[in-house]
Design brief:
Blueprint: E1 8-11, H1 20-27, E2 34-41, H2 50-57, E3 65-70, H3 74-84, E4 92-96, H4 101-104, H5 116-130, E5 135-140, H6 149-158, E6 163-167, H7 181-190, E7 195-198, H8 204-214, E8 218-221, H9 223-227, H10 231-239, H11 249-265, H12 272-286, H13 292-298, H14 304-315
Helix pairs in contact: 1-11, 3-5, 5-6, 8-10, 11-12, 11-14
């Protein structure tokens, strides 16, 4: 499942972002080695979301994809895992890290980190249900404090999971702090399975330095990949002692055009203004590091013509794109620890 000759590069699952159109778009620019779906919400009345299933059945990346689940009921998670096993997936992932209050208040995602005994039950049941299919976990290091990882790591060691991805912040820290790399390093030392490092990877150098400080088996990249989909090719080149490809402003513009087209063609009832609003969610990340006027103007557009006029005005050149976002952004914080 992971490359045998270098650290693995994974695209992080991001709800309402890493859907089929986004996978198509990012794969066009090199893409990751391994993908994880948006999470399937699991509860007593749930069935696997048909829209998320399309990322599996129509997987455009030509690379393995893992199905991620979020929930807290062992019976329902097992039921859903058995349903998902019918599809061409590379594994089942349990989400133990989502920091959204609407999720953790239901003791799902990061909320489960407050219930170590329940995590142990879930992992035991899911391991049995998965059988030969890999079982993976994506976690944060604690709910309130990083010291909670003292309790969590032995749980992950106890159960024969196949891959552990660590977003090295607590749930309460969300995305607003540096990551606590020493916990990733400790997990790398103690876990019998590969450990993937996640959080604060915003360009090639931050990824390389995160790998160097933790000796992780790979990197999972989320927000940094929305901003720069070439980050995977840049890291692959650096890891194989090649020259990373430069990214120009016009290349960013072509990426935005592709995203617009891919997200538009999957909807049956295209409404221009609604679609422009969806694109603004991507542009929230893409504009970071660009002149502030870009974000200011893109927030105010309403039509497709206005949207692409603003993008053309700011990106219609062959100048190199900014390598880093602003660290003062609410979306990218604390990454200077890796510079």
């Amino acid at each position: 499942m992971l490359p045998p000759d270098r650290p693995a590069l994974l695209l992080a699952p991001m709800q309402d972002v890493t859907d089929l159109p986004f996978l198509r778009s990012i794969a066009a620019f090199g893409g990751a080695d391994l993908y994880i779906t948006e999470y399937f919400r699991v509860h007593i009345h749930s069935r696997p979301d048909p829209y998320i299933l399309r990322s599996i059945t129509e997987n455009p990346t030509q690379r393995p994809i893992i199905a991620q689940m979020i929930g807290q009921d062992p019976d329902e998670l097992v039921r859903t895992a058995l349903e998902l096993k019918k599809y061409p997936i590379a594994g089942i992932d349990l989400n133990l890290g989502c920091p959204a209050p609407v999720v953790y208040r239901k003791n799902a995602g990061g909320g489960l980190l407050r219930k170590p005994a329940q995590i142990s039950t879930l992992l035991a049941r899911l391991r049995e249900a998965c059988g030969e299919l890999p079982l993976t976990v994506k976690t944060r290091i604690g709910f309130e404090t990083e010291d909670e990882f003292h309790t969590l790591l032995p749980l992950f060691k106890k159960h024969p999971i196949d891959l552990l991805t660590i977003h090295a912040r607590t749930v309460k820290e969300r995305y607003q702090t540096p990551v606590h790399t020493h916990w990733v390093r400790q997990a790398v030392t103690e876990m019998p399975c590969p450990v993937i490092a996640n959080g604060n990877i915003v360009n090639c150098q931050t990824g390389l330095n995160y790998l160097h400080s933790t000796r992780a088996a790979g990197l999972m990249i989320g927000r940094g990949a929305i901003r720069n989909p070439w980050i995977f090719d840049q890291l692959r080149a650096s890891l194989t002692h090649s020259t990373p490809p430069p990214v120009t402003q016009r290349m960013i513009l072509s990426y935005i055009h592709l995203l617009f087209e891919e997200t538009a063609r999957i909807v049956s009832d295209f409404v221009e203004q609604k679609h422009v609003q969806k694109m603004k969610k991507y542009l929230n990340y893409i504009t970071q590091g660009q002149p502030p006027s870009f974000e200011h103007h893109i927030r105010r557009v309403k039509t497709k013509e206005e949207f692409f006029t603003v993008c053309q005005d700011h990106l219609g050149s062959d100048e190199l794109a900014p390598d880093l976002p602003s660290e003062n952004s609410k979306l990218f914080c604390g990454f200077s620890q890796f510079l």
